[in-house]
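fwd from M.: "can u put these together and see what the complex looks like"

so here's what she sent:
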Amino acid sequence: MKHLILSFAALILLALPARAEVDIEEVTSPGGITAWLVQEPSIPFTALHIRFRGGATLDREGKRGAMNLMTGLLEEGAGDLDARAFAREMESLAASFSYSVRDDALSIQARFLTENRDDAVALLRSSIKAPRFDPDAIDRVREQVLSGIRSDAVDPNEIATRTWRSMAFGDHPYGSALSGTEQSVTALTRADLLAAHGDIFAKDRMYVGAVGDITPEELGTLLDTLLGDLPETGAPMPEAAVVGIAGGITVVPMDVPQSVAVFGHAGIEQDDDDSFAARVLNQVLGGGGFQSRLTQEVRVERGLTYGVYSFLVPRDLAATYQGQVASANDRIAEAIDVIRAEWARAAAEGVTAEELEAAKTYMTGSYPLQFDGNGTIARIMVGMQMLGLPVDYIATRNEKVDAVTLEDVQRVAASLLDPDGLHFVVVGQPEGLSTGPLPN
Amino acid sequence: MSIWRSAFAASLTLWMATSAQADEQVSTFTLDNGMDVVVVQDTRAPVVTHMLWYRVGSADEPDGASGVAHFLEHLMFKATDNMETGEFSRVVAENGGRDNAFTSYDYTAYFQRVAADRLGLMMQMEADRMRNLALTAGDITSERGVIIEERNQRTENNPRALFGEQVAAAQYLNHGYAVPIIGWMHEMEELGMQDVMSFYEAHYAPNNTILIVAGDVTPDEVRTLAETHYGPIPANPAIAPRARTAEPPQIAERRVIYRDARVAQPYVSRSYLAPERDPGDQQAAAALTMLAEILGGGTTSFLTEKLQFDSQVAVYAGAFYRGVSLDDTTFDVVVLPSPGISLEEAEAAMDATLAEFIQTGVDPEQLERIKMQLRASQIYARDSASGVANRYGRALTSGLTVEDVQAWPDVLQAVTAEDIMAAAEMVLRKDTSVTGYLTRPESPEATQ
């Protein structure tokens, strides 16, 4: 029967790219927890994605890195199980849990088999609700984090990103690395980790997506078991950040053959009316794929780089428009000139009708391709909830892209793109670059 | 928590993905011109992944032209007799698809992911560029700049990558695996039209390829489309099974010390020459796969237990084995010492732990947990049709057959503790190893 339906669909597909058919339902547990669910009973496992808003920006004053270290310890012992016993139990169940933290959210990704789902959920619950933070585990994971911090300190990509963010955001948490410094991480105590745990694990900032072999009723029970006894509220969210970086070039000298550059200026919020026009603009200017102007001009025409991209970064507390490129020390100056010129050309002229159509076709056509696998769909659904999007958003999203007009893009290009406001941070031994603010 | 594993663990995902799955719908056939075809059906979404794998990689390059396999891969996106430069990717994008390509020691692969009804168009374009590439001198110049920047980005700017090249070059005395896939810089700078076109003419033909289509498509549909688009291309009778130079027996342990001021976390690596998965003969590779997991596959593994928990000598320890390879591969161990522990001390602790493992043997409960995870991975793997496509592509370009791929899960489940110990004693021999130190330059204080 399914094949009959699909062959009918194929007739429509001749005219239209594939449409995402993701059947999302909103589930509310008996205890009042909501989650988005896609039932996919064909493979006997479930992928679960849970996110807690606030992430590493909730680090308390002077405790930079606490949320990151705390997150790293969630799988290092919980309830009656020490780190090794916890790992053995997870292996026996053939479940996998991973915990990560970013600027705006702490994420937990889990997948478990239908055949031992209850045991897997009990284990996952203990890691969220009752992590042990044993002193030996704290010391061990702290050393791993410090090792990573020391490596980041000599990584040109990390140095470029951190320098740019520090210049853009100053003392706001966005202005520093979420892993903290050697000094701040060394000073963290068990009490700091317990405080971080209490700050983030609360229902008022929680988002859940589930995809797989599970019914709404089963998911409801699971949600109450897993998350029902979390506190209602956590720490207040930090203030919004100001993007305080002016146009110019900053060089961080480092003895590497290839210079790495990170660039950008202020961006556009995700809920802005012009958000879709901005995304179409970025697709033309420096989005993924081979068609973008930056890739054509910097890579294909001139062979100056392996990769050049621009991307909109609408974080919760500040939006930026950023990009990156890497070129040999004697060629980075030319790459930067070309990027700034393309930025200026797009600001002045916008995009052509052909570019607009090509970008829209790509964005609408490739949209369904990203719903690729249970874990991915669960993650996407959590992201949608955090943006406050409706449960039927996927079916309507392409219409929003198609509705973008040439005038919309020209207007956004003129207001958003600021070639003189672009600040490039270059790590390496660049030749022929004049640093400092742009001359007027 | 293991922030370091991903830095070394290209092979972890390989390992988890190398088990074939129960219930996977795989069909195979061969076109008259010798092109092998694998179809993986997955009707959950109206999408297909179309992949063309060539049985040629960097280890098949002529002397002095290192990097040409990868350079050609880049140039395949330029003009043909029928398409303009860049048109291939533009058409894919205009159809809402994504495309890319990759090169390894043993294979070069091109793929597109696109709505299922665009499969014929993808085949038409892929078939076109198999025979009709039309490069200009300008293409060579500009794209050579791109691959040089790619090497700068991946390797020259990354001390771990530079170190890895040196270790591989020390491991192989007489085989192409000694040469980096991307090429040595001094040879990349000299690659020209002649190098590229002679490689293209020698290796790009239907009887040197495997077509893999995964997604919402039937084998009959694939056969019809493949016969239409690829069928007319004649086989190249000059294509013969790959005959590569073989390594002589390794009789001396080798050591590599690389010092770089950009190293923040020194480490010691040990790689042992090891057999790969061979057609109809995968038992030894299966035992080595299990051995890597038992020794250094995660929190409960032997090295981690001894070096991170019991003694805190290391901030990270791991073991890796890449069984899918046309020729002899390596079994690798890596230890990142804790602050205050020297590389010599870390190496001594690593060797003592390996010796202890040979004495202690396999923990039967750990072996059972690993087998349970492998069985589960067959279920999880069904979530990704493109993952299945990749698994077949790597295997079939590395000398294995569809039957080998499908037998692999059972071969793994049949591995016994005795098999694993026999594999350990066969492979963990210092005289077939390379020990590597990645460290900082000796400072004046350190030499005092």
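replying to her w this: Residues 47 and 115 of chain B are 4 Å apart (CA to CA).
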